[in-house]
């Protein structure tokens, strides 16, 4: 029985790769899969030894993960986070959650009412 926490990342650009590198450093946590429609993202997934799916729905319909990190372009966040909640999968959304305050604010209350865990990441990173 595998007792690792299995996470997936949607978006393996600069920020997604940072999340993947962080996951690799934590004992008991593994990167189980990725989502990225771009060849560069698929290559990053192959380098990390995980399957890469074209869409978040394809990932969630194909394998079971313990959580998803969304590191995709901002306009995709609310819809992808909603898909995770619909599948009962905890989700960490990179900031900002959305491109306007209206849709994200309505969305933020929805998962909690359904008993799901969702969070947004506000990372303080100093880049030389």
Task: List the SSEs and their pairings.
Blueprint lengths: L4 E6 L3 H11 L4 E7 L3 H9 L3 E3 L2 H7 L4 E4 L6 H10 L4 E4 L7 H12 L4 E4 L7
Parallel strand pairs: 1-2, 1-4, 2-3, 4-5, 5-6
What does this structure look like?
This protein is α/β, with parallel strands linked by helices and 128 residues long. Helix content is 38%, strand content 22%. Strands 3-2-1-4-5-6 form a six-stranded parallel β-sheet, with helices on both faces. It is globular, with a radius of gyration of 14 Å.
- The helix count comes to 5
Low-confidence blocks of residues: 124-128
Helix content: 25-40%
Quick one: overall form?
A: globular
What is the average of the pLDDT values? 83
Q: How can the largest sheet be summarized?
A: 6 strands, parallel
In short:
With 128 residues, the protein is an alpha/beta fold. It contains five helices and six strands. The protein has a six-stranded parallel β-sheet, sandwiched between helices.
Give keywords.
5 helices, 6 strands
